[in-house]
């Protein structure tokens, strides 16, 4: 049977338990049609890039599916009908990964030292630590290129007390 990964986003006012129940409902549809769901991951309440149906946030959930195509079609039909589901995406993959997804791996890493990834927080944005070094090097090179121009300007400028 083919493998699929499905991610769906639910409304922000749904509870985590309701999202888990929706995941169970969709997994039941897959199982009723001859497939199986090997992994369910709840990614939590996350900000959306843009508003969807008047929601700024959404609960994300990932399903790893091993099922025939008609089972996936039936699950997607039920997702379209359900008013709690804002968006969904199903992608066919070559193999299913048994390890936690990158989203869950990064979530565990974020909370450890109070920083995200390997950057620090400056000006409301996350930046690489090396970025300051690159900026400093760029400014130094730019100043070095301008130095001959400054010297020529100093030499050409009249000195006070001398007639022009």
Summary keywords:
four-stranded antiparallel β-sheet, 6 strands, alpha+beta, 33% strand, 4 helices, 164 residues
Most strands sheet: 4 strands, antiparallel
Strand content: 25-35%
Question: Uncertain runs with pLDDT below 50, 5 residues or more?
Answer: 113-120
How many β-strand runs? 6
Order of helices and strands: EHEEHEHEEH
Amino- and carboxy-terminal Cα gap: 90 Å
Radius of gyration, in angstroms, nearest whole number:
28 Å
Helicity range: 40-55%
Helical/strand content category? alpha+beta
Question: Can you count the helices?
Answer: 4
Query: Strand order, biggest sheet?
Result: 2-3-1-4
| Global mean pLDDT | 82
Protein architecture, described:
- It contains four helices and six strands, in the order βαββαβαββα.
- The protein is α+β, with helices and mostly antiparallel strands and 164 residues long.
- The strands form two sheets. A four-stranded antiparallel sheet has the order 2-3-1-4. A two-stranded antiparallel sheet has the order 5-6.
- The longest helix is centred in the C-terminal third of the chain and has 27 residues, at 130-156.
- The termini are far apart.
In brief, what are we looking at here?
This protein is 40% helix and 33% strand.
């Amino acid at each position: 049977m083919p493998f699929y990964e499905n991610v769906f986003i639910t409304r922000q006012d749904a509870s985590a338990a309701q999202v888990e129940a929706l995941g169970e409902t969709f997994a039941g549809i897959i199982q009723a049609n001859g497939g199986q769901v090997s992994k369910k991951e709840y990614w939590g309440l996350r900000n959306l890039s843009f508003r969807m149906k008047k929601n700024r946030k959404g609960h994300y959930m990932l399903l790893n599916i091993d099922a025939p195509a008609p089972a996936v079609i039936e699950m997607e039909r039920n997702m379209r009908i359900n008013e709690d589901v804002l968006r969904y995406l199903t992608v066919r993959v070559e193999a299913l990964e048994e390890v936690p997804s990158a989203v869950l791996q990064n979530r565990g890493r974020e909370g450890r030292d109070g920083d995200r990834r390997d950057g620090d927080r400056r000006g409301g944005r996350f930046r690489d630590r090396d970025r300051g070094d690159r900026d400093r090097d760029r400014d130094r090179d730019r100043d070095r290129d301008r130095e001959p121009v400054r010297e020529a300007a100093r030499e050409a400028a009249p000195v006070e007390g001398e007639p022009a």
